[in-house]
Amino acid sequence: MSILRKEDSETAERVPGVHRIVGMRNVLIHGYAEINDLTVWRTATGDLDALITAVDALLIEAGPPMTEDGGEA
């Protein structure tokens, strides 16, 4: 998501909670702070459905990936 925000901020903004996603990833990966188990649980059980729906829509809109020779993968 961090790369998406840099490369295509307009698309990134269509992902619900993109800033929070990047922030949580940084905490989990880099250990900037003690991980709050309740926050992780609430995210995993309450926020992922909306994220999956948004990302699925973006992937459908983008279409299939292209191969190096320009054909569909």
Main features:
single chain, 73 residues, mainly alpha, 4 helices, 67% helix
What's the structural blueprint in terms of helices and strands?
Blueprint: H1 2-7, H2 9-12, H3 18-30, H4 37-62
Task: Write a structural description.
The structure is a single chain. The chain is mainly alpha-helical and 73 residues long. The protein has one domain. The protein contains 4 helices and no strands. It has helices at residues 2-7, 9-12, 18-30, 37-62. The longest helix has 26 residues, at 37-62. The relative contact order is 0.12. The model has no long low-confidence stretch (mean pLDDT 88).
Give a quick rundown of the structure:
By secondary structure, the chain is mostly helical. The chain is built from four helices and no strands.
Q: Let me know the average pLDDT.
A: 88
User: How many beta-strand runs?
Assistant: 0
- What is the radius of gyration? 15 Å
* Main sheet summary: none
User: How many DSSP helices?
Assistant: 4
